[in-house]
Amino acid sequence: xxxxxxxxxxxxxxxxxMARTLPKDWDVEVTFxxxxxxxxxxxxxxxxxxxxxxxNMPVMDGYEVLQIVxxxxxxxxxxxxxxxxxxxxxxxxxxxGALDFIQKPVSAxxxxxxLQEYGILTLTQGAEADIQPMVKVDLRDACQEIANVAMGRAxxxxxxxLDVFVVLPIxxxxxxxxSELTMALKATExxxxxxxxxxxxxxxxxxxxxxxxxxxxxxxxxAKLMKINTxxxxxxxxxxxxDTGNVLIGAFLSGIxxxxxxxxxxxxxxxxxxxxxxxxxxxxSSEKWQRTLxxxxxxxxxxxxxxxxxxxxxTEDSIPTLNFKLGYLLD
Length: 331
Description:
- The radius of gyration is 21 Å and the shape is globular.
- By secondary structure, the protein is an alpha/beta fold.
- Strands 7, 8, 9, 10, 11, 12, 13 and 14 form an 8-stranded antiparallel sheet that branches.
- Strand 4, helix 4 and strand 5 (100-103) form a beta-alpha-beta unit.
- The chain has helices at 12-21, 36-44, 62-71, 87-95, 108-117, 139-162, 178-184, 219-225, 233-260, 278-284, 319-330, and strands at residues 3-8, 28-33, 50-53, 77-82, 100-103, 130-131, 166-167, 172-177, 194-203, 206-215, 265-266, 270-276, 291-301, 306-315.
């Protein structure tokens, strides 16, 4: 009997990767949803007896989907597939009725093992997954999914170090001119004052800078979580900025390098500005950033007044190499 399977993820690349990893001899009909609202409608229409669900999505996220399925007792077995690998995220989705959790990027073995563990997988020799419609992926989407997985790695490390839950956004990825950088930093628009850390990185054919933009109002709570002495305000703020940058930038670059199979060397971090505005920061560095591929992630720590923005700026010369590397994921 053909089983209706739903893959619910806002990334076309993630949907394509997920569909590829389904067992080839599993008799299923696959439907795709690009956000949680579409996913719930597909489940109600009987197209999601088995659901592979992302967490970070527009319109309606994965947590909301789980809540609706649980509250309305909809007929769906849900396996969460996410780059948010925080232990607290695992606990929350399990409490909301998720069957299990798979870390992105997915592998065929991980999918097969879970399906067999729960007795879901029925093998019908000669039958193959009916995957309609075809999934089309562009390079911007691929970059966003790469950033999504790397973002989750960085959040997981910060979560473990501070014993907190890091609220994750949908990464924002665009090729920008320097005049557009300020507009891209949506999360800092409401912040009158920020402090910034800059760290260069370079790999084979890829180079750029990572910027950590730390909201000044976040220093006090972050210092307490890090158990840093707050007697000397200036020293404390620089220490918080450096420690946060080491965690987020290092883990994020590591996550990207693993997915693209390339290594990055990092320069020593530099405090780029303290208690300044985004406009001041961008204007001071406008000569370095002409046209750039920008990955923007806004991290927020739940129950604390802590918010920071991680911005990776790849040089224009890096784009051909990134396109080449990402091409392997699109094939």
